[in-house]
């Protein structure tokens, strides 16, 4: 059910529990046109709904993760079109509906909307030539899919301000040093394989615990420390109502491997 045919994506399940999406619009360096975004939303929704899938990897090509929103599509957009039709709002769907972990494996250009899409990942991995940036300023606009907020949270105000105001790019090494990405790999293949291996590891755990873990870490982005810790504790307490808590702890005590029920 998850392996539909798409025009701008390749979708597969290369490892147990892992959904894999490759952006595939090579002629435009994976520029994010509306049809591509609609397909991406659909593929993510399918993986979100698939019981067997525990984590998702999103990548592009070796040359480009995505070179941004489709500039040619935006060129003649008017304010009333953009505001009236909530241009880009369907993008926020990507993060708000997705409860399963998403790893973005970035090789090549991740610019503008491409950088924003990469940052929608719960974990970002980078290949050696990954190039991040928010060059919208050069087009007479600003980031519009969360870049000013997520980049600032990720690397701090001074660096984000410099990046967004100059349009200068961030290299893979710099992204690693600044903590924008979790890991920098030596080759593009290792970056994608590393993301798939991490996704497989996450998918081997109880989906209910993984979902709760993602939820509480994300809360840290919105809540103060006191409310955040209280929120975490409520969710932690709630997991004692799950079967998998009993299964995991019983298996540990018996020196067995747990067989999760995702209940
Ligand atoms: N949109 C549309 N087409 C693009 C885009 C893009 N963002 N990026 C590249 N392409 C196309 C080029 O037009 C070219 O097409 P053609 O062969 O028909 O001329 C093809 O892809 C190959 O590109 P280049 O020849 O330019 O390749 P180079 O290797 O010389 O350069 C670069 C690569 C540096 C990445 C260059 O293509 C570039 O600067 N691209 C634009 C980067 C950019 O400005 N991105 C930000 C876009 S604005 C944005 O994302 C706003 C986000 C708002 C939220 C999202 C809303 C959907």
From TrEMBL:
Q: Which EC number applies?
A: 4.2.1.17
Keyword terms, alphabetized: Fatty acid metabolism, Lipid metabolism, Lyase, Virulence
Q: State the top-level EC class.
A: lyase
Listed GO CC annotations? mitochondrion
Q: Which Pfam families match?
A: ECH_1
CDD domains reported for this sequence: crotonase-like
Per its record, what are the GO molecular function terms? Answer: enoyl-CoA hydratase activity
Question: An example of a Gene Ontology BP annotation on this entry?
Answer: fatty acid beta-oxidation
Specify the domain of life of the species encoding this protein. Eukaryota
Known pathway? Mycotoxin biosynthesis
Q: Which SUPFAM superfamilies match?
A: ClpP/crotonase
The family line of this record is:
Belongs to the enoyl-CoA hydratase/isomerase family.
| Protein name per its UniProtKB record | Probable enoyl-CoA hydratase, mitochondrial
This protein's species is Cucurbitaria berberidis CBS 394.84
